[in-house]
Write a structure and sequence with these properties.
mainly alpha, 5 helices
């Protein structure tokens, strides 16, 4: 009767974990590559995409938002709203729509890559072109 409760480990979980890690790593690399290309299109150093916090500084600089907004990214709940605002500003800075900016906030690994490797051209900071300054 004891054998009914014994657990058997087939070792398949390790393989699944490796596959999931590789998929995650690939998605992350594609996202960083798209961010790198987007920064370069805006005249900023592409390598800035690799450095946390500095990449947020460069992102804010590209869209024309004040640098102190970095602090807003650190506030829970507020950061979610700020990501959407800055993503929409980024899309507008490249001549894209608000919907594209929402896509950048929700699916950044897809939309940053499309922006970086696509034919969109940087038009200047959206916040300076009449976007709300909040």
């Amino acid at each position: 009767m004891l054998h009914l409760f014994a657990q058997s480990d087939s070792g398949g979980g390790g393989g699944a974990a490796i596959v999931l890690f590789l998929v995650y790593a690939l998605v992350f690399v594609v996202w960083i590559a798209g961010m790198w290309k987007t920064f370069a299109k805006a005249g900023e150093p592409g390598w800035a995409a690799l450095i946390p916090i500095y990449n947020t500084y460069v992102w804010l600089k590209i869209v024309g938002r004040p640098i102190w907004w970095i602090l807003l990214f650190l506030v829970p709940c507020v950061s979610i709203v700020i990501v959407f605002i800055v993503s929409i500003d980024m899309a507008k800075s490249f001549g894209k729509s608000d919907g594209y900016g929402i896509g950048m906030a929700l699916l950044p690994f897809i939309f940053w890559t499309m922006l970086g490797f696509g034919d969109a051209q940087y038009r200047g900071p959206a916040a300076a072109q009449g976007a709300p300054r909040y």
